[in-house]
């Protein structure tokens, strides 16, 4: 047995948050409140409210859009994302389903074939495994199989990935699975602007779109720009966003990992170790390879970060695409993936902490990658 | 069914050297058994006979039932407190109010019979042999937890209890599979697969019904109808709320699930039914949870406080059994108080033991992904230099 978790912990940065707070309280507190990454408009919104506004605005604009799922109506949403929608739009457009994912997902897809624009909520994406046949075989493939005769303008949404202490059956990240399916679009918002813009784009998109939200992000507030507050604000699906420009290394992340990547980048910049460029993927499929390649050409180093399992994951895909592209010739070090650990998620808090990446792991990997040079 | 009841009564009477008549009319301390008449509305049957309304049961068994329910409730209340103190994380689904189901089932079954349920599983884990300490330690995510701290509230198991399952409905075909194995291996035992009113509409439940009937599996499907699937009332989720009839070609029995003796009687009946080769049976336990769906749900946005209070005051399983124990002079008020106190002490002690248990060792992070010697040489952690070699 040669587990080296303890060894890794010893050489890691002891306490990222403490280091930040000691060095720059203002920066630290603003970082910790995740305020630093969007425009300084003054209006803040939680991810939950951003999703709620997206739903409300789109449903107001187009009567064909309806929401269905468990507890979305009378309960106001298991996580309160659909709060107030039943009161505003009524039971025809906000539908509480029985606990039958396979059935109600199929029903939603069928209604999309027939011209409606359903938003199908899964209480978590774990439960969508019961419905994955309908998502993949019915929604994703039908436009192709029908020679373009059948359309499926459906949006599937719900929280994805780890929460806190919900154990093995409730913590899986499905980005890689859905990301591999032709016919689907897959988005993974991080902050409130992402959430609002991507959900609106997904609902407007005539293709089936999978929206992978994150429960731990629902309650987090972010500033919203003037543009983001508008009824017509959409974030283009398939375009990543450079959240922080840098010169020495590229960090690509999606969803909650973006926040950790930014914290790690700030910390290392503060320590004078490197200037990291942080890319928020926003979309899993289509993957914005162009933005990643351009960044790698500039920085020559790449680290990917995700919450999902390592094998056959988002990071694996990015590595492969980089290898196959012109960016390969620009690499000064091998690409490294930071991922969830290759284990079913344990419940105990100390074990769960080793199952998902955080600022410390990312910073450690960045440091190590900065110290490598091919051919040196 | 009546004939079977008479036979067992005679057997018992013979053992005790007392005539059945004596047993029936003089429930004195001299007789070991009592005969208790269940309320007429305790059962409703579908394509089968209802069990007899007179229950023949020993005093010891009754006292054990009482003790079990009281302890179970204390355990769940302790869990409630620990969750609010943030010592339990994630999901926590309590069975407060539903104690009669787990307790009544256990007394009618043997260790050879198997049980499987969904996530409202702490009570069943206890009845199926899980110690209170190991259950609480599991909730706290500690080494002494019944799953080593790796499963949490929804994933508790004992050798004859298959959890503890987080995905609504999945446990039902699993249960049919356990019954399949029992038949395959020639065991004269049954598997009880529990699910709620919320899960009752899942397609896989009907798939399990079909195979169980087709292949005559010793499967008893038990719908714990507590009227709400999370926040959704039964009539808003189910086109047919007569859950005991939903098996269609499988006979069914509706049972007052707040009466531990009715549960006991129905489960004994169901076991006999399936083990004697009549195939599967469906039981619907009409029960009620005082708490919300889980600790994250106040439980009052979709039902009235009056309803909850009414159930507590008029249908509480523990109060109901208490009244019977006193009525039949089985134990005194003081003895009852002693049991209550002992249960409180036992649970308090278990809480301390659970708290004293440490977190699992980090080495446990890498174990039990597969069986030992699975031929998997290496597991990766969050980055290439976090890994484990076996």
TrEMBL record, chain A:
Entry-linked SMART domains: Transket_pyr
Coiled coil start-end: none
Catalytic activity: N(6)-[(R)-lipoyl]-L-lysyl-[protein] + pyruvate + H(+) = N(6)-[(R)-S(8)-acetyldihydrolipoyl]-L-lysyl-[protein] + CO2
Enzyme class at the top of the EC tree: oxidoreductase
Listed cofactors: thiamine diphosphate
Pfam families linked: Transket_pyr, Transketolase_C
Taxonomic superkingdom: Eukaryota
Keyword Oxidoreductase annotated: yes
Key words, A-Z: Oxidoreductase, Pyruvate, Thiamine pyrophosphate
Signal peptide start and end residues: none
EC number: 1.2.4.1
NCBIfam families (UniProt xref): PRK09212.1, PRK11892.1
Family matches, as PANTHER family: DEHYDROGENASE RELATED, PYRUVATE DEHYDROGENASE E1 COMPONENT SUBUNIT BETA, MITOCHONDRIAL
Function: The pyruvate dehydrogenase complex catalyzes the overall conversion of pyruvate to acetyl-CoA and CO2.
Protein name per UniProt: Pyruvate dehydrogenase E1 component subunit beta
Species, as recorded: Linnemannia gamsii
UniProtKB/TrEMBL annotation, chain B:
Swiss-Prot/TrEMBL catalytic activity: N(6)-[(R)-lipoyl]-L-lysyl-[protein] + pyruvate + H(+) = N(6)-[(R)-S(8)-acetyldihydrolipoyl]-L-lysyl-[protein] + CO2
Keywords annotated in UniProt: Oxidoreductase, Pyruvate, Thiamine pyrophosphate
GO biological process per UniProt: pyruvate decarboxylation to acetyl-CoA
Function summary: The pyruvate dehydrogenase complex catalyzes the overall conversion of pyruvate to acetyl-CoA and CO(2).
EC number(s) on file: 1.2.4.1
Lipid biosynthesis recorded as keyword: no
One matching Pfam family: E1_dh
Organism per entry: Linnemannia gamsii
Protein name: Pyruvate dehydrogenase E1 component subunit alpha
Top-rank taxon: Eukaryota
Cofactors required: thiamine diphosphate
Residue ranges occupied by any Dehydrogenase E1 component domain in the UniProt entry: 68-361
InterPro entries: DH_E1, PDH_E1_Alpha_Subunit, Pyrv_DH_E1_asu_subgrp-y, THDP-binding
Molecular function terms from GO: pyruvate dehydrogenase (acetyl-transferring) activity
Gene3D superfamilies per record: 3.40.50.970
């Amino acid at each position: 047995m040669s587990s080296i978790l303890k060894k890794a912990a010893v050489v890691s940065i002891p306490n990222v948050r403490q280091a930040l707070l000691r060095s720059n309280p203002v920066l630290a507190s603003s970082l910790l409140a995740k305020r630093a990454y969007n425009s300084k408009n003054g209006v803040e919104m939680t991810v939950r409210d951003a999703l709620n506004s997206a739903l409300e605005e789109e449903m107001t604009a187009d009567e064909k859009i309806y929401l269905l799922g468990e507890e979305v109506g009378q309960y106001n949403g298991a996580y309160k994302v659909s709060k107030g929608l039943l009161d505003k739009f009524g039971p025809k457009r906000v539908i509480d389903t029985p606990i039958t994912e396979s059935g109600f997902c199929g029903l939603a897809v069928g209604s999309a074939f027939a011209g409606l624009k359903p938003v199908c909520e899964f209480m978590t994406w774990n439960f969508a495994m019961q419905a994955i046949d309908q998502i993949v075989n019915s929604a994703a493939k039908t436009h192709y199989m029908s020679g373009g005769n059948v359309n499926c303008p459906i949006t599937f949404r719900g929280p994805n990935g780890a929460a806190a202490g919900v154990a093995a059956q409730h913590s899986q990240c499905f980005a890689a699975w859905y990301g591999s399916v032709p016919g689907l679009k897959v988005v993974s918002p991080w902050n409130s602007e992402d959430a609002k813009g991507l959900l609106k784009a997904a609902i407007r998109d005539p293709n089936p779109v999978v929206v992978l939200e994150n429960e731990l992000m629902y309650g987090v507030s972010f500033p919203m720009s003037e543009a983001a507050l508008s009824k017509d604000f959409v974030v283009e699906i398939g375009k990543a966003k450079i959240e922080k420009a840098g010169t020495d290394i590229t960090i690509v992340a999606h969803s909650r990992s973006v926040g950790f990547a930014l914290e790690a980048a700030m910390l290392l910049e503060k320590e004078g170790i490197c200037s990291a460029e942080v890319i928020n993927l926003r979309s899993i499929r289509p993957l914005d390879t162009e933005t990643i390649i351009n960044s790698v050409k500039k920085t020559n180093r790449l680290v990917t970060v995700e919450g999902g399992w390592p094998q056959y994951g988002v990071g694996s895909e990015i590595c492969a695409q980089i290898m196959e592209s012109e960016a390969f010739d620009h690499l000064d070090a091998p690409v490294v993936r930071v991922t969830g650990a290759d284990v079913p998620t344990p419940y105990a808090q100390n074990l769960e902490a080793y199952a998902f990446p955080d600022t410390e792991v990312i910073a450690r990997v960045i440091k190590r990658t900065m110290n490598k040079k091919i051919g040196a | 069914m009546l004939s079977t009841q008479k036979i067992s009564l005679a057997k018992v009477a013979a053992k005790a050297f007392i005539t059945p008549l004596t047993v029936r009319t003089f429930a004195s301390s001299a007789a070991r058994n009592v005969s208790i008449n269940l309320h007429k509305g305790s059962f409703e049957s579908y394509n089968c006979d209802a069990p007899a309304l007179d229950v023949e049961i020993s005093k010891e068994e009754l006292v054990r039932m009482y003790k079990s329910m009281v302890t179970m409730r204390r355990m769940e209340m302790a869990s409630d407190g620990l969750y609010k103190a943030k010592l339990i994380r994630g999901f926590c689904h309590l069975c407060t109010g539903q104690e009669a189901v787990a307790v009544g089932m256990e007394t009618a079954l043997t260790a050879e019979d198997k049980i499987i349920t969904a996530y409202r599983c702490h009570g069943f884990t206890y009845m199926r042999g899980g110690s209170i300490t190991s259950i609480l330690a599991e909730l706290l995510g500690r080494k002494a937890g019944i799953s080593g701290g790796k499963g949490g509230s929804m994933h508790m198991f004992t050798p004859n209890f298959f959890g503890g399952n987080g995905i609504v409905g999945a446990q039902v075909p699993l249960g049919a599979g356990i019954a399949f194995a029992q038949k395959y291996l020639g065991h004269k035992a049954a598997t009880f697969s529990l699910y709620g009113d919320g899960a009752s509409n899942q397609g896989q439940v009907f798939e399990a019904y079909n195979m169980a009937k087709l292949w005559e599996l010793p499967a008893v499907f038990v719908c714990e109808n507590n009227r709400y699937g999370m926040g959704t009332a039964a009539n808003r989720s189910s086109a047919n709320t007569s859950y005991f009839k939903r098996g269609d070609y499988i006979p069914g029995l509706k049972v007052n699930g707040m009466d531990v003796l009715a549960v006991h009687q129905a489960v004994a009946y169901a076991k006999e039914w399936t083990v004697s080769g009549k195939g599967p049976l469906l039981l619907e336990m009409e029960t009620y949870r005082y708490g919300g769906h889980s600790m994250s749900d106040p439980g009052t946005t979709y039902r009235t406080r009056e309803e909850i209070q009414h159930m507590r005051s008029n249908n509480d399983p523990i109060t109901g059994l208490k009244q019977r124990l006193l009525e039949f002079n089985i134990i005194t008020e003081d003895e009852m108080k002693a049991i209550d106190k002992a249960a409180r002490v036992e649970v308090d002690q278990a809480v301390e033991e659970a708290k004293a248990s440490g977190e699992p060792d980090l080495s446990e992070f890498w174990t039990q992904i597969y069986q030992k010697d699975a031929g998997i040489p290496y597991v990766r952690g969050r980055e290439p230099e976090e890994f484990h070699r076996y």
